[in-house]
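Forwarding the complex inputs:
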Amino acid sequence: MTRQSNNYNRIHIWNPSTGKSFAEDDEKCPLINISLLAGPEDIIYANLQTEGKPCVIDFDLQDNRCWDPFFASPGLKPYDEETLPAPSIQEPILDYKEPNDDLAAILESEILERVKSSIRSWRRIPSSFNNEISYRLRIIIDDLEERKLNGMPPPPSTEYYTPLEGLSLSRGKKMFGFPLHSGFTSVTDILDKLHSTAIHESQHPEVEFSAAVRVFPYACDVFSVWVFVCSLVSEY
Amino acid sequence: MHDESRIRAQDPRADFSWILNAIIPPRKRSLYPARQHSNIFETQGTHTQLQQQSRMIVTVVSASDTLCREQAVFSNATPFLASPPSIRRLKSSDISSFMTKPSPRRIPDSEAIRRHQGLSSQEREATNRGDLNTIVQLKFCGKKYETRPDRKVNPSWKQVIEIPLPFNEEEKDGGFTPAKLKELDESLQISLFDIVSVDIGKGGGYYDDEVTVFTEKRFLGSVQIPLGPAFNEDKQQGTYILNTPDIILGYTPSGGDMSDTVHEPSSKFPSRRPNGFAPGSRAGDVESQLHGNTIMDDSNRKRSASLSMLVAIEPSVPMMEHSQMIVLPSNESPTLSQYATEWMQRYTKINPCGPKRRINILVNGSNRKQNIITRFLRSQPPPPECQASLSQCAHYVSLIPFLKTWKAFKNIARHKIWRTSQNVLDITAADWNERAALLANYFIYMSQEGNLDPFEVYLVVGNSITEGNVVSTCTTRTTVLSAILYCKEFNPFHLHFLQFTQLVFCRRTS
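Prediction (whole assembly, two chains):
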């Protein structure tokens, strides 16, 4: 049994919930017990190995000791009916709604308003927002979305200092901030996430905030929502 | 009075044991400590017993691949405010010269003043190295629990946190069953924070004895763990990958990480753009084409910070059998469904993992029938704007709001139904299975139609340590109700028991 260590024959496991992929040898893959593989046209294999983690098990599907095939299982008498493969119950052509740009723009302004008012109400003291920086943050978000779409890793954060540095307002300020990215379910969900990051808890007397929101529309009212929040304090 | 040492010296045996002890020191504890059996939760246990005993034990072990603090955030051309020129720090002597007697707030102890004046030398040193001072915060049912801070590159806390499980007072007379414990609809939120000490004293305008140092929490990442998997097994141990923001201003990835990905042959294109920041440039399109042609998306394997943890419920909850399940009429021919049943029974016998690994290839579809799992797989085109690469498909699918079918419709149906892709897109909500099937179908389309190198696509069924993000969402109710109304008499426990996560898995053929 040889493992396919060649780079050109690698297995990737994709997590549909996060859009991330893991190589088979990645120990951090959240999958801990693989039981079944299913492919189109009635390909089904059950795992016969004691281990279930993708980084330990053998993916040689021809090996009957590791994988039990559904239709050629050695322990059962062969299946001899001509009805296979079972026709799929999925639709051959999917009907997509056009991306909704108008709704995205409305969401964008609404989320930004709610983020600002929520930070103010959580802090319970007057908090100022810097609009000049938030314009630059929007450009950063555009770049991050494009990278995400193309499967590229985000750059080190130092790369984004260049567009932020020239601002007179940011001069001599220490900046801390991050973008939160998610699909759109409700504004409350986004605010809950923001609240748990505790960025509003800054006790610095001269702290200034900056927030930017971008909403990218996709087909069928799927939205990619980015909320970039950062805090600026003077560095002494 | 006896001189004991003399007596001992005269005794040859005592002398001998002393030498022996010096060579082989006596064992302080046994090598094999007796195993402590966890209490199995009794079905007959009274409410108060359960309330007092039940707790969740979380052992936070360590974190890896965390970030580094950045030094100068905005380096200006002019050295900035090395010492504030205009504002002079008020000294106690200034005040006392104006006042007849010293301020009552003044602390005479100079040590105490120095302690408050700034960061300790140890803190400064660590900050200069860029080390973090991290804590892990657990949030459960609105209550927060924190570990102690640890100042290391790869922090290790090895701390045990006990969290009492909440119970409704109203349920008192209803009697408790393990099933109710499993129905707890809460998730454990785990966040990683960096604790930063900020000294605002140098800004001027403060008294010497005023406290000018305070701490701030800086968010580094978080993960949500639904309690389902923790209940289904005695304990859940593993490495949880945190959902970290793509970038954090003020922090950089720690040094050792990049070297791991650089040698991968797939990173043909530069991971960093040469001209720095150029949004929407044509360079991005070229890169995407390059990227689209290669299946090895190693580049999106950005090393996220991960936490290694153990989550256990005490007392442990016995597994529930789902014997009362109602069987739907099968969509398959009698021969095929009989063959499938035989195959699954045979697998149960020869499966080396026992009850921990179960398979079910006949799943309930929205056509009110049992279908063989492969009927959900077929080539389906992704949306037109996402047809360039696999990562675009994955990005689109990951943005579809999450909906646990049984969670959203508590009183109607809790049974696992696989809806078809069109149904998913119509209501814009999907659970794990539907998302996985959708992504698999997009990948099948890409493998056939897209100009990518050939690869195979499989749907992987298995258990995972975290079910990803659990997001509840509201949808147009009527659409869903029509699809799942029929299964109202299903056994609700079945679902909690089988919490699978499907992941799609691709294999490249040579």
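Residues 130 and 210 of chain A are 5 Å apart (CA to CA).
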